[in-house]
Amino acid sequence: MSSKLLRGTFILTLGTIISKILGLLYVIPFYHIVGDKGNALYSFAYVPYTIFISIATAGIPLAVSKFISKYNALEEYAVGRKLFKSGLIIMTCTGVLSFLALYFFAPVIAEMSTSSEAGTNVKDVTTVIRAVSFALIVVPFMSLIRGFFQGHQSMGPSAVSQVIEQIVRITFVLAGAFVVLNFMNGTITQAVSVATFAAFIGAIGGLASLLWYWYKRKFYFDDLLLYDKGTMDISLKDMYKEIIIYAAPFVFVGIANPLFQLVDQFTFIKAMQSIGFEYDKAESAYAVITMQTHKLVIIPVSLATAFSLTLVPSITKAFVDLDRSSLNRQLNQTFQVVLFLTLPAVVGLSMLAEPIFTLFYDHSELGTEVLRTYAPVAILFAFFLVTAAILQGINEQRFTVLSLLVGLLLKLSLNIPLIKLMETEGSIVATAIGYTASILINLFVIKTFAKYPFRLVFRRSLLIVLFTFLMFIGTGTVYKILTLFLSPASDFQALLIVIICAGVGAGIYFYCSFKTRLIYFLFGEKVDRALKKLKLRS
């Protein structure tokens, strides 16, 4: 059973990673199709949509899967089926209500997002928000089905449906926007509306794959009911109470980043206009922050948290068992893995900001400066996600709400003053301050309730910082030499610069990590297994 569970977890993780990679890569052709204005419009729609979808579904697959697997282990299969049947009705209603709320509040959100001097922009933003709102009808319903499959240790359907949903969505985004602009002579607003409506089309594709899996496996789920003990009769009220307890922490973690972006959506352009920027330039800067650079900054965050969050179940077990030694060891490893993977990535991203931005989009002084400033914030994104997960592991998730609210309050209070003082970078600094406050609160709670000493993490962090500094020196030297005869403003030459510099940087960093055996302290036997697969060690 344990090998089946591990295999299922691997499949689900792989599906999630593939889905995220596709979600990152499509922004390159999409940017070249719709430009800065289209990117800004797309972001205006997707930030509120992400918040609505997070509230409607965040944690539902995991919560439902935990509930069903719990009662399946007790051979009370009918309890899970009862939840599933009533849940489909509830999630359908939730989806429809979320759709109606976003659809009818779209003009209000648009009014708060754009300037009254921008003419038709309020109407444009309203149109694209309404286009994406249709996805809310399907996604909550789909998330419950995913949770049902996962509760039966069947991870394949969830993984496949995620990938299919993403492929269908991206295909529709790119093809739809291209056809509207190049064959139908449509406007940017129409092209972006088609692109945001793709979320609904993608959801239909994901749902279709889940229904196909349901049709193929329904006989197996029905057979389980024949072995039901039937000794427990849990009311729907108690069921949903348990589900909400499971899901609530994920809602707050899931909406953290979109809420910070929503503050920018409501304040950034107006603040930039107040210091003399024209609307179009302010809108372009907004697109650079919320769409273009944000997509790049999230890459190291996804890599680091994917590794570190796998340790959280071990943290939970050690905390419940009151095994202080094991708990400290797991926390040490988690924090070190996050820093080990994130710090060199963000330093490299910041150092190579110009060729990387050119490679993904176009050469832009603003894009380069914003990416250079924004990249280090990725460390804060990663540490917030991990510390919030640890709080759940030690059963103190209620403090996640407090830390998030404090961080948001600081972002909201400082965003406009800092934008007026520092222009575009002011928004990034306000985000960094807000996340730093949230993380410090989370760390204080971890130290207080888990009795966790930070001494070892601090010492190892100095080592990681040293290796990163050596990487910075080596890579920076190579970068300076390469830019003597290669231009970071050219797509192909930027690609060469990134490949060579990234190779040199990774080589220096991992050489130091192997020589000091730091990488073995962090990843243990996984390192040898990886080297054997790569045929670097016998």
Automatic annotation (TrEMBL):
Domain of life where this protein originates: Bacteria
Pfam families documented for this protein: Polysacc_synt
TM ranges: 12-34, 46-68, 88-109, 129-149, 170-188, 194-215, 243-263, 296-316, 337-361, 373-394, 401-422, 428-450, 462-486, 492-512
Entry-linked InterPro entries: PG_synth_SpoVB, Poly_Biosynth_Transport, Polysacc_synth
CDD domains noted in UniProt: MATE_SpoVB_like
Compartments, as annotated in UniProt: Cell membrane
This protein's UniProt keywords: Cell membrane, Membrane, Transmembrane, Transmembrane helix
A Gene Ontology cellular-component term: plasma membrane
Broad class of where this protein is predominantly found: membrane
Membrane topology type: Multi-pass membrane protein
Protein name as it appears in the record: Polysaccharide biosynthesis protein
